[in-house]
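Pilot study result, target chain (166 residues):
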Amino acid sequence: MTEELFDVVDAEDRVIGVAPRSEVHARLWWHRAVHIFVRNSRGELLIHRRSASKDQYPRCWTSSASGHLAAEEDYAPAAVRELQEELGLAAPLTFLAKFPASPEMCYEHTVLYETVTDDIPTFDPEEIEHGEYLPLATIATRIAANPDEYSPCFRTIFAWFLAQHR
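Predicted structure:
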């Protein structure tokens, strides 16, 4: 299997090159990602524990679904793809915010989308160890108690999201 290719981008999220995933991550080059927050009709947020085989933040809790954009891919189609690949869900997505690349954002310009559905997710076992829906306050308490159990980008995105919902 050939290695994924990512667009390498500048501070303004303009493409300046293309490189293999391993090189982008090793050199900490800025690239692109999406995160999707899946909420149920009770307002609970689905979070998942990454599988132990993940190359970054294995076994850490993170967004409902997330992933990198392939070279030449746009944010919205990547979000639809990741939602389907990781959770087996197809649901309308709403753009929430764009976060600039930084160390806290895993060197990724990141767009956050949200969907509300009561459809039952089917977790991709290569990506996800397990997941659960939780109230926002419970997630906030758990992050405060054990921040290292959550990916840095999720902590950043979740803090922003929580501030919008207070």
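One observation from the pilot: Helices lie at 21-26, 75-87, 136-145, 152-164. A full batch analysis is planned for the follow-on phase.
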